[in-house]
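Example record used in the benchmark description.
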Amino acid sequence: MKHSQNTQNPTNNAESKAHAQDSLESTKAGFVAVLGRPNAGKSSFLNALLGENLALVSHKANATRKRMNLIVMEKNTQIVFVDTPGIHIQEKLLNQYMLKEALKAMNDCDILLFLAPITDKVSFYEEFLKDAKKPHILLLTKIDSVPKETLFAAIKAYEKYQQNYLALIPISIKDLGSLRRVVEVVAKQMPHNPYYYDPEILSPNTTKEIAKEMIREVVFENLSDELPYESDVQMNFYREKPHIHHIKATIVVHKESQKGMVIGKGGATLKRIGREARLKLESFVGQKVFLELFVKVIPSWCKEYESLKKMGYNFED
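Model output (structure tokens):
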């Protein structure tokens, strides 16, 4: 038996290779980095494509801190969109990590999508071109917010760079036709590969990871000024039982004075955050959620390498 396992039949081996090649050529799969300045609408765009609110959306800039993979299937093609932090330059250590995440996605993916809001200056796109080493598609976003004359003027302004991009597509997340066009164009650019992930899932990120981002989204929307940028969420406990998910999470801030702001008078702010987060999580998992939230101070967590590493932001990755 041992001998027969080590002896290959040339005919069968050739057939196996031919079958593997046919399988490879019948499917396509690739990674697409979704890039743009803060508040370009990257996460809203991806949620609209998926039909699910998985990517963190906030009217505050720089809400996305880490990359998240989101999967769209188009016939025999698996497109893995990579949501990234907004491209921006700041001295804060956490912002430096976010820029690193965006630049790494630019280098690792097969193609790039650059989202340019219709009211943005063309100079922001020119800055992107300095770092773009991969083929890219230019998306003019939020076109429903301006008159047609403004849209036509913007298209004309970007057309002088047409030798740089694969396609220029004006989009609105309210217009399914424009989103469909993006998926079709991207699918054509994907290389022949077997699928990277189960085609039935929307994201390879764990439910726990997505739950953390959903809680953080609610924190962002309920806290004002700089506090959201100096806060984060730690997942302490996550257990899925029949018909209910038990979650314990801690909202982390970096100054003692911020703790009281998160809790609010008589615990009102924390209760509101907990209620909104629970409802969002229940909608996502399709089951009841028992959520406990706590607040903790970790002094200057967002300004020190070791503290950032403990919070999951590792510069060495």
